[in-house]
# Entry
Amino acid sequence: MDLKIASAIATTSEKSAVDLFLGPATETSQGGERNSAGYRVARGGESLRSLRHLLLPTLHAINDRVGWLSRGAINYISQRLDIAPADIYGVATFYALFDTNERPARQVHVCIDLTCRAMSGCKEDSIPNGAIASPCIGVCERAPAVLVIETGVTPRYEVLAPATNNEIAELVAGKSARTQQDIAAAVPQAPDNSLVLLSRIGRVDPLSIDEYIASGGYVALRRAIEIGAEQVIKEVTASGLVGRGGAAFPTGRKWAAVASQPVKTRYLICNADESEPGTFKDRVLMEGDPFALVESMTIAAFATGCQHGWIYLRGEYPRALKNLQNAITLARSSSMLGENILGSGFGFDITIFRGAGAYICGEETAIFNSIEGYRGEPRNKPPFPVEVGLFGKPTVVNNVETLVNVLPIITNTGDKYATWGTTGSKGKKLFCVSGAVNKPGVYEVTFGATLRQLIDLAGGIKLGSSLQAVLLGGAAGGFVGPEDLDLELTLEAARAAGTTLGSGVVMVLDQTVDMIDQLQRIAAFFRDESCGQCVPCRVGTVRQQEALARLVKSSGSQNSAVDLQLLRDLGQVMRDASICGLGQTAHNAIDSALTRLKVFSA
Amino acid sequence: MSTQVTTGLQVRRTVELTIDGQKVNAVEGSTLLDACRASGKEIPTLCFGDTITPKNACRVCMVELEGSRTLVPSCSRKVEPGMVVNTNNERTNHSRKLVLELLGSSVDLSLTKNVARWNEGYKAEPSRFGAPSFHHHDRDQAITGHHHQPDGSTAETVHQDVKIDNNLYVRDYSKCILCYQCVDACGEQWQNTFAITTAGRGFDARISTEFAVDLTDSACVYCGNCIQVCPTGALMFTSEYEMRKDGTWNEPEQTQTDTICPYCGVGCALTLHVQDNTIVKVTSPSDHSVTHGNLCIKGRFGFQHVQNRASD
# Structure
């Protein structure tokens, strides 16, 4: 490409960060060495054009090293990857973990999202000076949560939770976070061998492949290879497994659709961009049982004929990153990943792709754009990912929890798995219980348990607390009230009751929680996280927030009727006309608070 | 549309679908918008341009497709046999009304064609969201994932100062609906210059050069192909901008003369917009097989020599 690049040049550390990641400049039209006549040697052409997918990891490399993205740094990436500086700027400014303004090497991100503000009052204006307000960090069982990023030659990502305001101030001042908490602390049921999805948590070292194998690991993969790809899909279809990320699409049908594509280059993506406020189950699975995800991805790829897989991991999960990297390395060296897996002739490998702070990148087509090096804007459907997905190829996208469910399906058979649960909801389900309960954490239940049973499992409501509301499914979900405690937590019962299980969030809010504040945060969240592509979501989320702000002031008056109607109108256009699920669900929780909890109708 | 047959005796298959209760035939590969327009229905469009792949970002052209949970964008949804489509019911009209209101309350649509008429037709009242707010921090400096909590007393807009940083054209992003057409025309769909991009996210998303530098410091080659595709007047010849400011811009009085660019051998078609015997801007027909509406800096802006009169 004929690039016009301004004069700003990268610093030595920016350059070395890029070169460490990409290797020294050789194939480049502009950044390469000069020949004896003093001219730049232009090489690359077609091969340069295929480097775009390295853009986000390269931006991460610089951000990890110096903490922000300067003009010089972007110019250097432009030369190395043959992407115009403006284009890179557009991508860099899409992601909240990147900054194109100079900032300190140490950033303290304090979660101000639903659980954290309900439990501790962590709000935009109450966090210590110098800390950065952050959307949900996914450590809701120990609210409030703080993520410290210290950039440098050896960047450090640390999570501290729960954190007091004093501790946050100390972190801002440069103090190191306490040692990481035990992973099993997030799973109050652990250790429990009888669990299906969480059985290894607290019992098996997540860093040891030997312990994984000794505890039943890789039995499913061996069996999958033995029964063949078609039979694997049959088992998954028979199991009745549906997606656990929120949309509940039948997994077997998705796999069969990809397996039947005429195009043979196919990809698998594990959606680990868990960012729905109140959700932390995938984090616990990836931290506590990373080999299970690697194994289940291998089975999914084997069944659907995918040659390569990506784990799109949200940028805020440092321990999951570390444990997954370790698992992938060990799986490769044990012939469980790479070429000719277990001598079967089947080859498959996995790349971890770090997100950079964008809730929208949990949307399956936004993931494609993000991995390909573009702004994480969702694509229009059709075409659907099973036909035209990542790099234009048929692509399977499954959530972490969905994939991990494949292991018990293959080891026990799909029919056996289908005996668990109810008629409409099969199998085991993880719920992320947070808020005013005695033992918040991830809970595994067989579909069919009621909300009351789940809360009891989590030790019941805290002493002195009385239940005000429960948020099911996160910000894109809906509130239910104390009268709904006997709601069966199944897909069909939730649908019949006009609510959703979504990603499995069960956020228990007691009488001390300011519901209006929660609604305003939900509105602010969607406004911040909208990609900005379509009008209903881009402007609708702002108008929704403004109408809520007016309602707070005029509650009960005649004006509030006008604004309530405005909200309903906005909800309808967002649901009907937004490109993706973000906009389509951006009014759900607010709607449920207005209609079920009668907030504002006093 | 570029999908139409251009040569030979190629036979295009047609598909039958139902639009508003009527059976219609449409060419395979065409869009619902094509089919609707062919059967005489007016579907409003804003971000849709005839030389750029539809981005379906504005969502004003949404129609109801039976079997689809949400409405579908007619500009980009391809026809399929047996589709049952409704273009004019409560749901589609609510959606169009709201999109017109959302854009009308946040963007200056004063130069966008048909908007006043559509507002009336769909009973859109952009003002019901409150008085527009023109007080802003610099949108170019917006921090992704952060915003100031609004109090609801005004409706936030995309207002920012007009960017005048060169002699050829101005950028008034207060009028920008983010149709992405300028970015696509500057980038891979036409010019391959990539001087501009969409930066930021959500309501703070905006068209920008890298680090919001002036055009003169950017990769811009002043082809003006972004002006050609801009549907809202956000991008405008400096000549037009200044005449509008002076109150002398008089479009009904202007003549349009088609000619061929004199500069090189490509033979680009030019349309000269002339007012008071002076060229005030240059466009190119978007359906012209040579240009598809695109020109270079010479064809677009190099017309001063024509009107350097002896008396000057």
In short: Chain B touches chain A through 61 residues (CB under 8 Å). Residues 160-246 of chain B form a domain with the Alpha-Beta Plaits fold (CATH 3.30.70.20).
